[in-house]
Design a protein that fits this description.
The protein is an alpha/beta fold. The chain contains 18 helices and 14 strands.
């Protein structure tokens, strides 16, 4: 038996809408009864204690009933209903102070997992804390708190990782599906995202993790049924937490399955050397010369980026071309140029160090951002930096030589390198680093080149000419 829910509202339509929304969160979950409005066609807005009493009796269970209310007379009607009920039934009813919509959703999911009446009430009351913490990241509430350190996870714990591909991340519906799927197992569990932990049984805590598309979610489980819990997690994750993805993609991210085909080919190991900053102090007489060198390198880089944008538009469309148009705009920005010239004039830095220091400040600022989508834009900044350094140091671009169909293995790929490969013999790409949200991954998807990212030590183990199989069904790269 599980806790059931009664929704009390002044508006019948509102209550039925809340109940409908909550019932979509779970399958075969707890029962919900509605006690809303009054039987007056002219003035239907109001509450009726008798309706509330009858609704409680309808869904009464030995596990208890939680009553959710909107405001004003809804509270008074619920309190009156308790007085009218048989004392035995009234003794297992709780009136919740939680917000009606958020609280009901959290209560239904928690109750459907088999939680106690007190646990269901606690989750309902904590529901508003999630919204508060998301709108105000500095806010910290006991209800929605996500732990930076987990409760002791033993060394023997089983773990499973998954890169979330749901367009809106782990929002309330997939979070509810996860909580329900992991309920009932005789095991201790923690869900982890980037060093933050939450209980998989708490929709509030899962929501507070703010899992977005491209984030890696890890389930740690230990205890008698840890294996069964991990298996349930993996099955649900492969079904994208109960959501149908809008379209299929052939990109594999984080070593996880998103395509069914296996690719056999020889490995080409691409290990480009990123140019280093050649620092050199300059004299006052060299300032104008260094400024001219900087301007010339930036102008040449912007011309290349505009040409690359035009090529990308022909190959992959205007949306993909916008990536390199944005690169050109960023590098040609007047404020950025002034900041570089100030470094040359005031600090007497040479052109290379002025360019490098200013762009790395920008790259590190992106890296420090909380938003995963913005954080990976540091790769774009480093791509631009390498291009401009190449012009300052009179170096040619580095691209792999690909004579036959291959699986390209590399630590990472800049977006500009990715577009250069779009017309090559590359059948698939396997990266030691990378992100689902990077422009390199987005370009690979647009070019229909399967890609696997975040494959640890792949560049250490793979060598050019080695035969390999990239099996998307098992998300493995087999080297022979």
């Amino acid at each position: 038996m599980m806790v059931n829910i009664v929704v009390v509202s002044h508006s019948k339509r509102l209550a039925e809408g809340v109940a409908e929304l909550a019932q979509q969160m779970v399958q075969d979950g707890c029962r919900i009864a509605v006690a809303a409005g009054v039987d007056d066609e002219q003035n239907p807005i109001g509450t009726d204690a008798i309706k509330v009493m009858m609704a409680i009796e309808e869904v009464d269970t030995p596990s208890g009933v939680l009553v959710m209310m909107d405001l004003g007379s809804a509270l008074l009607s619920a309190e009156t209903a308790l007085e009218l009920l048989d004392p035995e039934i009234a003794g297992r009813v709780l009136l919740s102070s939680a917000p009606l919509v958020e609280g009901t959703l959290a209560a239904v999911v928690t109750a459907s997992s088999g939680a106690s009446l007190q646990q269901v009430e606690a989750e309902a009351c904590g529901a508003l804390g999630v919204k508060r913490s998301q709108l105000n990241p500095q806010a910290s509430t006991a209800e929605s708190k996500v732990l930076s350190q987990p409760s002791a996870i033993p060394d023997a714990a089983l773990s499973s990782r998954w890169v979330v591909r749901n367009a809106h991340g782990l929002h309330v519906r997939p979070a509810a599906a996860l909580a329900q799927a992991l309920s009932g197992f005789d095991a201790e569990m923690q869900v982890e995202k980037e060093g933050h932990y939450a209980s998989p049984h708490s929709v509030n805590q899962l929501a507070a993790l703010q899992v977005r598309q491209g984030d890696t979610l890890c389930l740690h489980a230990w205890g008698k049924q840890a294996g069964e819990a991990i298996a349930a997690f993996q099955q649900l994750a492969h079904n994208h937490f109960g959501e149908a993805l809008p379209d299929a993609t052939d990109t594999i991210l984080g070593g996880k399955l998103v395509s069914a085909a296996a690719i056999n080919a020889a490995v080409v190991r691409f290990t480009p050397t990123n140019l280093l900053c050649q620092r050199q102090s300059i004299t006052a007489s060299q300032i104008d010369q260094e400024k001219a060198r900087l301007l010339q390198a930036i102008a040449a880089s912007v011309d290349e980026l505009e040409t690359l944008a035009a090529k990308t538009q022909q190959l992959l469309g205007a949306d993909m071309a916008d990536i390199f148009s944005a690169h050109a705009l960023l590098l040609g920005d007047e404020e950025l140029l002034q900041a570089m010239e100030t470094r040359i004039t005031v600090e007497q830095q040479n052109a290379e160090s002025a360019l490098y220091d200013e762009l790395m400040v920008m790259a590190n600022a992106y890296l420090a951002m909380e938003d995963s989508y913005l954080r990976v834009r540091e790769l774009d900044v480093r791509d631009i930096l390498q291009r401009a350094l190449r012009h300052l140091q009179d170096q040619s671009p580095q691209l792999p030589v690909i004579a036959e169909p291959c699986i390209l293995v590399a630590d990472e790929l800049f977006p500009s390198q990715m577009i250069a490969l779009s017309q090559s013999n590359v059948k698939a790409i396997c990266l030691a680093q990378g992100s689902v949200l990077s422009h390199s991954a987005i370009l690979a998807r647009a070019a229909a080149i399967p890609m696997m990212v975040a494959v640890d030590k792949v560049t250490e183990l793979a060598r050019t000419g080695q035969q390999a199989t990239l099996d998307f069904a098992s998300a493995t790269l087999t080297l022979r």
